[in-house]
Write a structure and sequence with these properties.
164 residues, elongated
Length: 164
């Protein structure tokens, strides 16, 4: 399973929104990340629809967090950017096998000998989702303070503070 790079850009950009109530525009975020504004706009549209960020109109407008960093998990961001479709999509390939061609197994949510693979994959995905739900933006902000040079964090905040 692989998430798009949009998830990584979203998490980085959301961290930049943490230090203050000031809004940051897509133009500044895209420039700082070195990516096209149009691409980042699409990511932020998804984040906005999910209630993670809110758009502030006007000259000093842009985006700000719609919830506190303690209320936004990595999984919230993944689900907003990637959608709610499970990573493993049961295709009922057993139906093509000789023994099952005439059986109905359209419901892969119930444990049968033929659907055990799907149930294991769904359980594994749920475990991963729970782990990502336990990691919040506030944790990421603290972790970046711990692992990045202090000057890098100060320079980042200063870059986005120019707008204020």
């Amino acid at each position: 399973m692989q998430y798009s790079i949009g998830v990584e850009y979203a998490l980085h950009c959301l961290v930049y929104l943490i230090p203050s109530e000031a809004t940051i525009g897509i133009k500044e975020l895209a420039f700082f990340q070195g990516i096209p504004e149009t691409y980042l706009s699409k990511v932020f549209t998804k984040l906005s629809r999910a209630g993670i960020v809110t758009s502030v109109p006007g000259v000093k407008g842009g985006f700000k967090l719609a919830r506190t960093p303690d209320e936004i998990s990595f999984w919230d961001v993944v689900e907003a950017v990637e959608g709610k479709k499970p990573a493993f999509q049961c295709q009922n390939i057993k139906d093509k096998g000789y023994l099952y061609r005439n059986n109905d197994c359209s419901d892969c949510s119930v444990s049968t000998g033929a659907c055990s693979i799907n149930l294991v994959m769904l359980e594994a995905e749920e475990t991963m989702q729970n782990y990502l739900r336990s990691k919040k933006l506030s944790w990421l902000d603290e972790e970046l303070d711990r692992v990045l040079p202090t000057q890098a964090r100060l320079d980042t905040r200063a870059f986005f503070g120019k707008k204020q």
